[in-house]
Input
Amino acid sequence: MTDTASFEEEAGIPLPVIALFKGVVYADAQPQLWQSLLRLQARVRDYVGVVGLELMLDEAEGCAYLRQRSATEDEAELPRLVPRRQLSYPVSLLLALLRRKLAEQDAAGDAVRLVLSRDEIVEMMRMFLPETGDEARLVQRIDTHINRTIELGFLRRLRGQEDRFEIRRIIKSFVDAQWLSEFNARLAEYHAHAAGESVMRTEGGMDPQ
Output
């Protein structure tokens, strides 16, 4: 690599690094930034590794984010730059249900993005939440869980369509195949526990780009 090319790469590193510190980078949302990240990913890995982070990049799904790197036996534990967040029962339940929907779509070989309506999400969650006897209050609570899931970056509200939501494929990185294989058993646990008990963790703020 020439000195000029090396300099150009070094100069280009801050843009993808800053974007990653802000949240998830999506190929479809920021195609130029995504191409820059693909080209510079080795340098970016080295760069963030200095402060104990690792780059998680899924080229097939078109998303990338930073994760706290686990310390080895001979390393001191560094302060966390990416906070670990405890999720409530309803939010973790919603993530599991959304992940299953995505798995069903993938199994059917359908490559288009997966969009659900608010009513579809309400119906998915209804049977696993405690009865309130108040339909309006139940829907209001589910709206709160939907909004929290949007904040975490696993759902995206469609522009101009307030009641329709796209499942972001980053969810596959947090609800993996092994976790999904135990889904039925977990749903039984969900059904047996009161809403509000934390059953799942995720790292970092996943603000959509």
